[in-house]
Specification:
Elements lengths: L1 E5 L5 H5 L7 E5 L23 H11 L5 E4 L2 H10 L3 E5 L2 H4 L21 H13 L2 E4 L2 H8 L6 E3 L24 E4 L9 H7 L8 E5 L7 H12 L5 E4 L7 H7 L2 E3 L9 H8 L4 E2 L8 E3 L2 E3 L10 H13 L1 H19 L1 H16 L10 H28 L4 H4 L1
Parallel strand pairs: 1-2, 1-3, 3-4, 4-5, 5-6, 7-8, 7-10, 8-9, 10-11
Antiparallel strand pairs: 12-13
Helix pairs in contact: 2-3, 3-5, 7-11
């Protein structure tokens, strides 16, 4: 099977394709700028335009080379839907917690609702969800969200990592460590619980430093104000460092004594998974109510703490710093846990079985005629770019003009 993947969120499929046995994957990502580019592999391919029409044109030219498509975002689903490909949608984060077809969407960590799309856009994105031949969630929490909007052809497949790169035997980075050092590798902001980490660190009694990547979410005005307040009140233990290049991440984990992960959602993401595979103890809020099904048996998380009260987080951080025995015990439990649920051999088999199953159901019938497709693209670009991108292009893409970008 030849599989096209659009928008490889968290570099999941970049690692998966190294373990494939029955299929081949081609990955195309959406344009990025600045620090976020460092989080992609050097092998990453990008669309050369942010315009939907240009993206659809590119996919239309190559679509006959592929049997099926996997999309990681609404942007990816939008393109392949308009290009007429059959597709599987993979949900990793807020894309299904706050889908664009809902009115008055609210993220639990922000104080106000997200901006509403108009009714035409909402109907369009709901149609995109319904037309996917299968929808897959990366965690039980997201699977429960997915079930609210779709009842049939839904699955759960965990994230994974290339264990040939993420393991305990990698060579460490050459960094200066004057004291016990935590690495905090994820994007920062309310979604990741940076505000909760900020509250926990002053409560700690031990002496340590936290190397935190200087990469903050500013996706709307409300979030940007919260981030400004966070930066202004940075705890004394935190030292900002540049975003670490993807290829250097395993070495950075190896260099640190431990890792501080996310503290908001209650489920581990890619960075916590990577650190655990590298056998580093991870302090990360993980909700014990979330169950994981392994060989028809439910298991619970091994990450600590299992609530995100700042005082509890501070206690776990102090234990990690003070006790080598505690660190080793925590690391071994976390490593065993991620190996059970996220081994690349297990995850790749699940993806290849799924691709094989749904490839037999494809009909490859044209979704629209040419005129209707063109009309839809023009309407979307008018809504999406004229109203939004031109106003936000400085924040999203630097100081280039809309005309230069397109």
């Amino acid at each position: 099977m030849k599989v096209l993947v659009l928008g490889d969120v968290a570099n999941n499929f970049n690692d998966i394709r190294k373990f494939l046995k029955k299929s081949k994957m081609k990955l195309i990502n959406f344009p990025r700028k600045g620090e976020s580019l460092r989080t992609y592999s050097d092998e990453s391919e990008f669309f050369d335009s942010i315009r939907i029409s240009k993206q659809v044109e590119k996919i239309s030219q190559i679509k006959n080379d592929f049997d099926i498509c996997v999309v990681n975002s609404w942007a990816g689903a939008r393109v392949v839907y308009l290009a007429g490909l059959e597709y599987i949608t993979y949900f990793i984060g807020d894309d299904i917690r706050t889908p664009p077809f809902l009115k008055n969407r609210r993220q639990k960590y922000l104080n106000q609702s997200l901006p509403n799309l108009n009714i035409i856009e909402r109907l369009f994105y709901k149609k995109i969800l319904d037309e996917a031949i299968c929808c897959v969630a990366s965690s039980q929490e997201l699977f429960d969200e997915l079930k609210k909007h779709r009842k049939k052809n839904i699955k759960k497949i965990e994230l994974t990592r290339d264990v040939n790169n993420y393991n305990e035997n990698v060579k460490p980075m050459d960094i200066t460590k004057e004291k016990f050092t935590f690495f905090c590798p994820h994007r920062n902001g309310p979604e990741k619980g940076t505000d909760i980490i900020w509250k926990a660190l002053p409560l700690c009694k031990t002496d340590f430093q936290v190397l935190m990547v200087d990469w903050f979410d500013r996706r709307n005005e409300n979030e940007s104000k919260m981030v400004d307040e966070l930066i202004k009140n940075k705890p004394k233990q935190v030292k900002f460092i540049p975003v670490v290049k993807k290829e250097d991440m395993p070495r950075m984990y190896k260099s640190a004594d431990a890792v501080i992960g996310q503290m908001q959602i209650g489920y581990h993401g890619a960075t916590e998974l990577e650190a655990a595979f590298c056998k580093k103890p991870v302090v990360h809020y993980s909700d014990p109510k979330i169950k994981y099904l392994i060989e028809n048996k439910e298991i619970t998380t091994e990450f600590l703490p299992q609530n995100n009260d700042p005082l509890e987080i501070a206690k776990i951080i102090d234990k990690v710093v003070e006790s080598k025995e505690f660190r080793i015990n925590l690391m071994e439990k976390e490593f065993e846990f991620v190996n059970k649920i996220s081994s690349p051999y297990k995850v790749v088999k699940e993806w290849e079985d799924l691709i094989e199953e749904y490839s037999k159901k494809l009909n490859h019938k044209p979704r629209f005629n040419f005129s209707l497709t063109k009309c839809l693209i023009l309407v979307l670009e008018k809504f999406y770019y004229n109203k939004k991108m031109e106003k936000k292009n400085i924040n999203a893409f630097g100081k280039k003009s809309y005309e230069e970008l397109t």
